[in-house]
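Worked example 4.2. Below are the chains of a multi-component assembly; read each line carefully before continuing.
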Amino acid sequence: MTTMIQVENVAKAFTLHNQGGVRLPVFDNVNFSVAAGEALVLAGASGAGKSSLLRILYGNYRPTSGRIAVTHAGRPIDIVTAVPRTVLDIRRRTLGFVSQFLRVIPRVSALDIVRDPLLARGASAEEASARAKAMLARLNLPQRLWDLAPATFSGGEQQRVNIARSFVDPSPIMLIDEPTASLDAGNRNVVVQLIAEAREQGSAIVGIFHDEAVREAVATRYLDITDFRKAA
Amino acid sequence: MNMQVNPQELALDPQPLLSVAGVSRFYGERIGCADVAFDLWPGEVLGIVGESGSGKSTLLRCLAGIDKPDRGEVLFRGGAEPLDIYSVAEQERRRLMRTAWGIVHQNPRDGLRMDVSAGGNVGERLMDNGARHYGKIRETALDWLQRVEIAAGRIDDRPRQFSGGMQQRLQIARVLVSEPKLVFMDEPTGGLDVSVQARLLDLLRVLVRDLGLAAIIVTHDLAVARLLTDRLMVMKDGRVVEQGLTDQVLDDPHHAYTQLLTSAVLTV
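Applying the procedure described above to all two chains together yields the following structure tokens:
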């Protein structure tokens, strides 16, 4: 299978300049790779650095050292040293990030939020709307909410809008951080199915799942972050 | 294995729209801004953040052709030939500023003609660019007023009869009607109520995306930067102390000053 992510010797430490310059090491010498069609689940206690690692893979946090080859448009690119517009292009076409939190933008409707990634990848307005509506329906978001801005939605409703946006056109690489945190059992199962479908279509998945049942339903492989913990 | 990629291989634009090198501006002994260098690509939105006195507005004026830097060059590639905007004649620079660039001032009164109707304010820019057909000018002006959510019935009113938020939206229509390649904005939402700001921000976000504008936005508001910009430069004492993707700089700030800025806001 095609390697989609190759992590080499990645280390991360935070330096808090305004709190006495204290240095917080997170992990050191992280090495792993993920292939298309795999779902790698990150394990390790709370605070071990799972979310930090996921953010580093997305190019959001900058590692202290190491490199991360992301396969984009058929070739490996180091997302750590790539210039901003290359990172943005990688995110637009290759790399998706799914969190439990929706970044609400004033006045933008739920439907438009979900349509947006399809439009950005060149789908027609008609196709984008049809697929977005199907995805919102699948996640059981009441139709009366589709044309409203999600600022006033409940936490679970916002979360489902965010998941719909992420899975309406799954990226070749999906980074997933606790997507089911406040969902009921029915919607949680829908999310598990969506992840499985994306993987079967060839997406490489890296995720963090608190819920053990979800974790076991999703994972094809585990990686324990605690192993990379710096000897303090 | 070489993983450095030339963005051109990804079919991204081959050349920056604006190349800035070594731009410095001094006021006697005091530094306005020093040694600023960056490339801006078509469709990219760059934010410049920092507190009052950090040099961000001085830098913007140097970049926008308003205030000549003491050192450095600003190269614009909007036309057939790259143009060093401070080595060409004043007249040529003014023509460029009128046609290929747009400047949105913090205070709409600096960007509008207050004694000319709303339609006239928008139409004037079209006439500057050679439009002569009255009917078409009025039609385009009307279309732009609606895009910035000003009712058609207000086309003959003067800006002084408008609220602050409306004046700012009118200024944006006046700037964008001539389809500039590059837009400079100085605190575009400063001085507006929060609810009015939200509407203006959403409007700017949609217009920038739909028109594929390149823009440089000076703001002290990190939430505005988060919403509108792709990249950030953080300035302190006239120098750029940190730069990168907007979410990198805001979520994982490395410089002490950026850490101070991001920790000083309640939620970004």
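Take a moment to check your reading of the output against the notes. Residues 194-211 of chain B form the longest helix (18 residues). Strands of chain B lie at 18-27, 30-40, 45-49, 71-76, 83-84, 101-104, 182-186, 214-218, 231-236, 239-245.
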